[in-house]
User: Which sequence fits this backbone?
């Protein structure tokens, strides 16, 4: 089983971001909306109108809380995009005190992660949905 982690450097701030033109952000990409790192699930673009700017409407899901956000930005304007690093681990062991032992891609173990105490979340983390 793999545990997937997506990191946002400095939640609540824009330290872990870079600028990207709104017209270049695509579905399955990332964007910061209301200071939250989000994965884009839908993008719709409108044509340039009487006011001279095309608009991009983003529908996105917060990568930590799964909350849904929407934003409309002129396609020529820059948006903040979070630096997202995805790391897969292989589950090696779960100790009796609730800590998991994970194997990194480099062959080392990561032993400082404690399972959630909520049974539903713990089941999802283990992949067994107990």
Assistant:
């Amino acid at each position: 089983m793999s545990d997937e982690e997506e990191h946002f450097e400095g939640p609540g701030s824009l330290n872990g971001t870079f600028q990207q033109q709104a017209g270049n952000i695509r579905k399955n990409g990332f964007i910061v909306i209301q200071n939250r790192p989000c994965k884009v699930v839908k993008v719709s673009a409108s044509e340039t109108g009487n006011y001279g700017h095309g608009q991009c409407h983003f529908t996105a899901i917060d990568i930590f809380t799964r909350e849904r956000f929407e934003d409309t930005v002129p396609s020529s304007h820059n948006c903040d995009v979070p630096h997202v690093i995805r790391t897969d681990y292989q589950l090696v062991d779960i100790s009796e005190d609730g800590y998991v032992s994970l194997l990194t891609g480099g062959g080392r173990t990561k032993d400082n992660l404690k399972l959630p105490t909520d049974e539903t979340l713990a089941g999802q983390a283990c992949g067994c949905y107990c």
In short: Residues 119-126 form the longest helix (8 residues). The helical segments are 119-126. Residues 87-126 form a domain with the OB fold (Dihydrolipoamide Acetyltransferase, E2P) fold (CATH 2.40.50.140). The longest strand covers residues 36-45.
